[in-house]
UniProtKB/TrEMBL annotation:
Boundaries of every Flavodoxin-like domain copy: 79-244
Gene Ontology molecular function: flavin adenine dinucleotide binding; FMN binding; NADPH-hemoprotein reductase activity
Residues annotated as transmembrane: 12-31
Species name: Coemansia reversa (strain ATCC 12441 / NRRL 1564)
Cofactor(s) demanded: FAD; FMN
The entry's keywords: FAD, Flavoprotein, FMN, Membrane, NADP, Oxidoreductase, Transmembrane, Transmembrane helix
InterPro entries found in the cross-reference section: CysJ-like_FAD-binding, FAD-bd_FR_type, Flavdoxin-like, Flavodoxin/NO_synth, Flavoprotein-like_sf, FNR_nucleotide-bd, NADPH_Cyt_P450_Rdtase_alpha, OxRdtase_FAD/NAD-bd
Residue span(s) of domain FAD-binding FR-type: 296-558
Designated name of the protein: NADPH--hemoprotein reductase
GO CC entries: cytosol
EC number assigned by the record: 1.6.2.4
EC class name: oxidoreductase
Amino acid sequence: MATQEGIEWGDMVIVSSVVIGAATFLLRKYLFGNKAAQEMTIAQRAALEEAQKIGVEKSKQHNPERDIVDKMRKASKNVVILYGSQTGTAEDFATRLSKDIQSQAVRPLVLDPELYDWQYLSRLRSDELVIFVLATAGEGEPTDNMEAWYKALVSDAESPDDSDVPEFCQADDNPPLDENMPLQGISYAMFGLGNNTYEQFNHHARVVDRRLLALGADRIGERGEGDDDIDIEEDFARWKDATLPLIRQHLGMSTLSDSGDESAPEPSWKVVEMDASQTWAKGELFSGAVTTYDSRHPFAAPVTAAVELTPAADRHLLHVEVDLAGSGMRHEAGDHIGVYPTNTDEEVDLLLAALGLLDKADAPIAVQATDPYAPQQQLFPVEATTYRAAFRHYLEITTPVPRSQIKSLVLPFARSEAARTFLRPLAEDKDVHAAVVTAGCMSLGRLINAVRDVEKQADVLGNGEEPFVLPVHAAIELCPRLQARLYSISSSGKVHPERPTITAVVLQYDAKTEQAVQAKMGARRCGVATNYLLGVLRYLRGDRIVDLEASNDNNDDNRLRTGHLLSQSAELHTVADLSSVSASRDAKNYLLQSLTLQPSPGSVSNKRALTMPVFIRKSTFRLPVDNATPVIMVGPGTGLAPMRAFVQERAQTARANPDQPMGTTLLFFGARTESKDYMYREELEKLFEDIQQVAPESQIITAFSRDQPQKIYVQHRLKENAELIYRTLLCEQQKLNGASRAHVYVCGDAKNMAKDVSRALAALIAEREDVSEDVASKWVSEMRKLSRYQEDVWS
Ligand SMILES: Cc1cc2nc3c(=O)[nH]c(=O)nc-3n(C[C@H](O)[C@H](O)[C@H](O)COP(=O)(O)O)c2cc1C
């Protein structure tokens, strides 16, 4: 019981300080405002009031550049779609939604909330509409591009019904705003994107929705909730089917759905072929005078190391290190690194051939908006590109084509009966789509080829019918933007300030259904980013021996390419650069040859140097500030990444401060087999020797699932080591003289492992404390709230 009291007492202290802190914050106006004012002279008070008035007036000043309503009206639109997106899915859904609802009466405009201010929402008229498409990120957090809106609308309010109503903009042409319900008369629709394996499922959309309702706005239809653990495409389609008729009705249109319409939509983008005799290369992909690097302006970091960590034949486990020197970027243990990958030559060629573009793949093109009022006038961050570059660097071309996209952007271009008969079920029947397209990993290039095969068998040409041709603008519209991939950094920023490392396993998928295999779509598909990293490794290792100099082709063009590749030129992703890279097509047997090549002086062995576009994303997954706090880390597989950074940091601290107390440091690591999958073994064991000098109970506890007949995972090891964990979790307090108790970190698979670990922990607390598992689970939840139980998980 003593320990239980310990828990309650300890928690009470922390909980009460949180409560006191919150109350102090809420009452700050009364607690401090008056006292400060009392101490001022009359003149000082007058000056302060004047300054406050100016500040308020200034914040009220209309900034048309950040006003969604201004933007919308200038472009003659009546619907604004705002997306909250971290990795591009919500952005893609928003763009597709815009196409789906577009008609004479419904004129949507897709905007990024980061570039606009929330205050202007109140300026919308009743014959206009805002649609939110909001993904949830982090642990139930808003996406970065919705952070300011979220903070103003939601998180500054204690509850959705909070009386502290944010101050919206009063439009001249609207009636005065209701003080408590300033969004009365505003209509919106809401679709959330999430994943049910996260505790806070769809939290972002849910709380924004509640808050908008509380502020008086009127929601059209139900809030949609997409779950990408199951079938987010279908969730989206269902929500659209239910909501679009209501939206049409709201905007004064007939409610008839257009499900029978197979006509081609108006293109949003046009491809302009440019004068090939001119030099269009303008320098780096993210050009301009970039002084601060971020996700929109990644840093071309030289790759300083790339190795395979374990020798398994059936998979590749990679360790890649980059050099951030000169970028000004800093990383701390627990942060993520974003990497912009490229598609493989193989996939790019497949699509180029399917679109009939191989002959002019390297000709300069520009992709421009067809709507002169569209906020984004060119699709890519460079003025000119090539078809090859567009499909390699900017567009996601390997994912299975969603059903709704087949319906709106592929089927309309099928002119033969055979093509229509093949495509219709894929567009209309979700089970057929799942069996053939999803399970068959049918990318756009493969889908086009499948239609061609069907037409060939039906002898479409012989019948005098027109064969299927997908216009390039439809292909460009159909492919989402290629997004950066985030990896938990596996090195400590304190120990290796400019050298973050990535630990990743190369992803490969096989087409799953018999149908798909029979239809010859059964080839192996590869994850874009991890295969890009594998390509980086193979290039540096020298696997790609088919060097450009070795080419038999001696024409001028090729010499130029060779020169370009070996020069010190910083041109990256340019027309010339891209064609140079594609010259080495012969190394086809490798999964990836297309790299962002840029010789960088002073890094790895001369001409094998290359760079990767990267940026750092800060996280809240952090070691406790006080080293005396014990830590329990659970990181099986590549979930070891941030734990390795933590261990490096703790070992360094232990070496530097042998007289300072350090909390017990436990690492639970799991993998398939000890002999093949125990990555960083020697290094970790060495680091733990250092830690044990000051925290003797510290240790690595491993679980190798395939080293014995029955499967053993990290959660089993937690159970077996219940006594040690319990001691580390709860009893260190006395030993360490009042230091706060252990922090628990879990990294890796969200769907099974993270849940099992949480349950295992609750179970062992329940047993030791003799309380129900329900009570113990609440303690774990409390630990989460107090940031003593942190997860960095993915599904
Ligand atoms: C790091 C990370 C954290 C996430 N956290 C949550 C979460 O707390 N709740 C949830 O419902 N979904 C969560 N998701 C799932 C995303 O919301 C979902 O995958 C969504 O489709 C991503 O949209 P985006 O690509 O536009 O960012 C998370 C996904 C990632 C990668």
